[in-house]
Write a structure and sequence with these properties.
The complex is a heterodimer of chains A (461) and B (109). With 461 residues, chain A is mainly α. In chain A, 75% of the residues lie in helices and 0% in strands. Chain A has one domain. The chains are: A mainly alpha (461), B mainly alpha (109). At the A-B interface, helix 5, helix 6 and helix 9 of A face helix 2, helix 3 and helix 4 of B. Chain A: NDH-1 is composed of 14 different subunits. Subunits NuoA, H, J, K, L, M, N constitute the membrane sector of the complex.
Chain lengths: 461, 109
C-alpha cells in the first residue's frame, strides 16, 4: 500500500517542482522516489498478505513482484528521457507526472482484489496514456496515434464494463473471492449471464493487451507515439496487462477453465501468427517492434492458457526479459532517429562500424527477443513452453516454435543492416552518458539472466 | 429509496437486461460505422450508460448497494474521458480542420 501511496503523491510533488521551475531536480526526484517505492514494495515481501480496505486490494507476492518489475522498467525508461521531453515542450514536469500517474494505475492493476479496483486501475493507466501518446502536439502522427488509442481504448472499456456488470448480475458481488466461491457453489452447466460476462472481459482485456483479433490499433499507435512513450507502452503497460489478466483468471475463473481455455487458445495462436507474419514485411524498425510486441503478447498468453502454479513465475521471467530487451531496442532507436530522422531499417546501415557499442547492445536485444540461448529471452520462452507442455498442449508448443523461427528472420534483418550494409560515410553518433548506463545495464542483465536463470526463476509466489 | 427500488422491480429483470443489451449494441454499431470522431465518442458514452443502467437494475434487484457505487465510478471515468478526449479532438481539429476519422490515414490503419 505504501508503494501505491508514494507513487500517487510523487507526481503531485513533481508538478510543484514544475511550478517552481526546478527543472534539473525533476529526474533525480522521480528516480529516487521510484526506487524508494520499489524498496517499500520489497520490504513487504515476507509480510502476511491479507486483503485490505474491505477486500479491495491484496498486496501479495504476485503484486509485489510485478510492481517491482514495472517500477524498475519505468526507471530505466525515464533515464532515457534525459533531454527527450525538453525537445517537445518547455513544460516537462507534466510529462513525468502523467507517466507516474499511469504507473499508479498499473500498481492498482497488479494488486486488485475486486473488479472495481481492476477497472479503476486500467482507466487511470489508459487515460494517462491517451495524453502521453499525443504529447507532440504539432506532429500529425502523434495526434493520430492519440485519437486512435483514445477511441479504441474507450471502446474496449465498454466491453470490459459490460462483462463486469453481467458477472455482478450473476454473482451479486465484485469481489474476486466471492466470485470464486459462487462458481464453486454453482457447478451447473453454462450460466448465460456469467459466461457471457467472462467472454466480454476476455475481449476487453485482449484489447488492452493488443492480442489478435483485437490488435489492429497497436501498430498505428506504437508507430505514431513518440518513441519513448512507445517504449513505455510496449513494456510496462504490456506487463501490467498480462499480470491483471493472469491474476483474474488464476484467482477467480480457474475452476471453469474448460470454458474459456479454447477461446484463449484460438486467440493465442492467431496472435502469434498475425504478429510474426506481418512483422516479416515491415520496412520500419519501429513498426516491426510494434508487430513483434503483438507476437510477444501471444507468448505471454501461453501462461494463461496453460494455467498452473508456475504461471505467475514464467510470466514474470518472460515479461522481465522482454521489457529489458525492448528498452534497449527503443533506446537505440531514439538515438538513430535523432540522427537519421527516420526509423527505417536502412538508417541502421553501418552502425556496427561507427558505433560498435550501440550495435552490440542492439544485437543482444534482438537475440534475446528472438529467443536465442544464453539470453534472457530464451529462458523466458523455455519456461513458457515447459508450462504448456506440462498441460499437454503439444500442438500449441509446436506452433509457437515455428513462430519463434519465423521471428528470427526479422530480428536478424536489423543485425544484418548494422554489420554488413554500407555506411562508410556514416558519422559517429553521440551517445549521452545516461544512455550508456541504461543500455549497458540492460544488455548485462539480459546476458546474466540468460546464463544464471535461477536468479529470477527461483522466486516463490 | 424504498419506493424507487419497488418501482424498478415492477419491471421484470429480463427487460432491463434486454434494454441494456440493445443500447449497448447501438453504441457498438455507432462506433463501427460512423466516421465522425465526436459521434464515435458519443456512441462510446452510450455503451457506458447501457452498463450503468444494467448495474442499477441488478443492484436494485439484489438489494446490494455496491452496484450503484460502481455506477458512480463509471460516471467519474466518463467525465475524465470527456475531458481528455475532447482535448485530443480539438488538437486534431487545429491541425487538420476536420473531425472526420478518414483524415487519419497517414499511418496505415
Amino acid at each position: 500500500m505504501n508503494t501505491l501511496i508514494l507513487i500517487s503523491v510523487l507526481p503531485i510533488l513533481l508538478l510543484y517542482l514544475g511550478v517552481f521551475k526546478a527543472k534539473n531536480a525533476l529526474l533525480p526526484v522521480t528516480v529516487i522516489g521510484l526506487l524508494a517505492a520499489a524498496g517499500l514494495a520489497i520490504a513487504g515481501w515476507n509480510a502476511n498478505a491479507t486483503p485490505i480496505y474491505h477486500d479491495m486490494v491484496l498486496f501479495d507476492r504476485f503484486s509485489i513482484a510485478f510492481s517491482v518489475i514495472t517500477i524498475l522498467s519505468t526507471v530505466l525508461i525515464l533515464l532515457l528521457s534525459k533531454d527527450y521531453f525538453e525537445k517537445i515542450s518547455s513544460h516537462v514536469a507534466e510529462y513525468y507526472a502523467v507517466m507516474l500517474f499511469s504507473l499508479a494505475g498499473i500498481i492498482c492493476m497488479v494488486s486488485y482484489y475486486n473488479l472495481t479496483m481492476l477497472f479503476i486501475g486500467i482507466e487511470i493507466m489508459s487515460v494517462s496514456l491517451y495524453i502521453l501518446a499525443g504529447i507532440k502536439k504539432r506532429d500529425f502522427a502523434s495526434n493520430e496515434a492519440s485519437l486512435k488509442y483514445f477511441l479504441m481504448g474507450a471502446f474496449s472499456t465498454g466491453f470490459l464494463l459490460f462483462g463486469i456488470a453481467l458477472i455482478y448480475g450473476a454473482t451479486g458481488s465484485f469481489s474476486i473471492s466471492v466470485i470464486r466461491d459462487w462458481i464453486l457453489t454453482h457447478p451447473r452447466g453454462i450460466d448465460p449471464l456469467f459466461h457471457t460476462g467472462v467472454l466480454l472481459i476476455i475481449v476487453g482485456l485482449c484489447f488492452k493487451l493488443g492480442a489478435a483479433p483485437f490488435h489492429f490499433w497497436t501498430p498505428d499507435v506504437y508507430e505514431g507515439s513518440p518513441s519513448l512513450i512507445t517504449a513505455f507502452m510496449s513494456t510496462v503497460v504490456k506487463t501490467a496487462g498480462i499480470a491483471a489478466f493472469l491474476r483474474l483468471f488464476q484467482s477467480a475463473f480457474s475452476t471453469i477453465s474448460d470454458f474459456w481455455m479454447p477461446v484463449l487458445l484460438v486467440i493465442t495462436v492467431l496472435t502469434l501468427f498475425i504478429g510474426n507474419i506481418t512483422a516479416l514485411y515491415q520496412q520500419s524498425f519501429k513498426r516491426m517492434l510494434a508487430f513483434s510486441s503483438i507476437s510477444h503478447a501471444g507468448y505471454l498468453l501461453f501462461a494463461v492458457v496453460a494455467l498452473g502454479a508456475a504461471s505467475a513465475n514464467s510470466v514474470l521471467i518472460y515479461a522481465a526479459a522482454y521489457s529489458i530487451a525492448s528498452i534497449i531496442a527503443f533506446g537505440v532507436l531514439i538515438l538513430v532517429q535523432q540522427q537519421a530522422d527516420s526509423d527505417h531499417f536502412s538508417s541502421f546501415n553501418g552502425l556496427g562500424k561507427s558505433n560498435p557499442f550501440l550495435a552490440f547492445v542492439l544485437t543482444v536485444a534482438m537475440l534475446s527477443l528472438a529467443g536465442i540461448p544464453l539470453t534472457a529471452g530464451f529462458i523466458g520462452k523455455f519456461y513458457m513452453f515447459t508450462g504448456a507442455l506440462s498441460r499437454l498442449q503439444v500442438w500449441l508448443v509446436i506452433i509457437a516454435v515455428v513462430n519463434a523461427i519465423i521471428s528470427i528472420y526479422y530480428y536478424f534483418k536489423v543485425i544484418v543492416a548494422m554489420y554488413f550494409r554500407g555506411g562508410e560515410e556514416r558519422t559517429v553518433l553521440a551517445v549521452p552518458g545516461y544512455f550508456v548506463f541504461v543500455l549497458g545495464l540492460s544488455a548485462l542483465l539480459t546476458i546474466v539472466l540468460g546464463v544464471y536463470p535461477t536468479l529470477i526463476a527461483d522466486i516463490n509466489f | 429509496m424504498e419506493n424507487i427500488t419497488h418501482t424498478i422491480q415492477a419491471v421484470p429483470l429480463n427487460h432491463y437486461i434486454l434494454l441494456s443489451t440493445i443500447i449497448f449494441a447501438i453504441g457498438v454499431t455507432g462506433v463501427l460505422i460512423r466516421r465522425n470522431a465526436i459521434v464515435i465518442f458519443m456512441s462510446v458514452e452510450l455503451m457506458l450508460n447501457a452498463v450503468n443502467l444494467l448495474l442499477t437494475a441488478f443492484s436494485a434487484y439484489k438489494g446490494d448497494a455496491s452496484g450503484q457505487v460502481f455506477v458512480f465510478f463509471i460516471m467519474a471515468l466518463a467525465a475524465a474521458e470527456v475531458a481528455v478526449g475532447l482535448a485530443i479532438i480539438v488538437m486534431i481539429y487545429r491541425n487538420t480542420h476536420s473531425t472526420d476519422i478518414n483524415v487519419l490515414n497517414r499511418l496505415k490503419w
